[in-house]
Structures are given as structure tokens and as C-alpha cells.
């Protein structure tokens, strides 16, 4: 019984946390980071102020959680991990995972908040880069480095290659959404964009066959 109650309490806490981060993201977008108080977020999330302050004692801590959770949305999904030893398969998994991640409305909203508030709150940009984008790019870089070391790819500059690959996908999936309110490409078009990016990477980084 005690274990069931503990699990129940954890589920409730997680539900409240998700309600808080969702409400905060929406309010930051509509009212701005500076124009949104923790009290207003608690009201919008349907939780008490004490509940919110217990999880997020400051607005910066709340924004930090939004960034981290947005970029780690599928971190525990083993199906989203690249397969070692097969460059095409690994890049395909990474590419579709990345397209799904940055295609979420929450991610576009996060970028909009940072861009809008950057002149007054440069720390938001640092959080987005250091806690979200940089670790994600680093994970792709490490994958490419491991494939290079194993002889499955010829990637002498894995950092540059990771930026090339993810940049090709973001240029179609994310950045038009930041400027065009009606941008909503079909799933098949996103699939094709990822596959084209994979093909480009294979053409550049597949090792030459042994003589």
C-alpha cells in the first residue's frame, strides 16, 4: 500500500510539473518572460503557489526546466537511439528523431521566447544553448566520432558534420516556422527532407572501399 501511495504521489507531482511548464511556456509567449509572474503561472496551471515554489523557487529555475525537458523529450526512448555500425541506419534514426523534436510546437515556442527576450534577458539564450542545443549537438557529434573511430564513417571533423546534418533538417523543419505562421509541412515532406539530408551525409562521409 505504501509503495502504491508513493507511486501515486509521484504521478501527481509529475502531472503538476507538466501543467506548470506548459502554462509557463504559454504565458511567456503571450505576456513575455518579464511580464509573467510565478503567481500567474500557478493560477494558469491550476496549482497552489506553494506547490509551484516547491518545484521551482525562481522563474529562472522554471525556464531552465522548460529548456532541459524540451530538448530531452525522448532521452529515455531506446527506439530513438542510433544504431552503431550502420551509418545510414544511425543517421536516419537521428534525423527523424531531430525532426520530430524541433517540429513540436513547444520547441518553436521556446525559440520564440528566447529570441523575443534575448535583448533584456541574455541569460535565457545561454540556458537554451548550454542546457539544450549544445548537449544535443554534442550527442550527435559523439555518435559520428564513434563511427569514424570504428571505421564505419570517414568524418575527420565530427563537430562540423553534426552541424551540417542537423542544420539541413532544421532549415526545413524549424526555421520557416519561426517566420511563417502557416508553415506546417506534411509528414511525407519532412520524411523526404530527412532522407535527403541522410543521402548528402552518406555521399560525403561514407569511407572509400578498400583497394
UniProtKB/TrEMBL annotation:
Organism superkingdom: Bacteria
Coiled-coil intervals: none
PROSITE patterns per record: HTH_TETR_2
DNA-binding region coordinates: 37-56
Residues of the HTH tetR-type domain: 14-74
Keywords (A to Z) from UniProt: DNA-binding
Protein name, entry field: TetR/AcrR family transcriptional regulator
Native source organism of the sequence: Streptomyces lunalinharesii
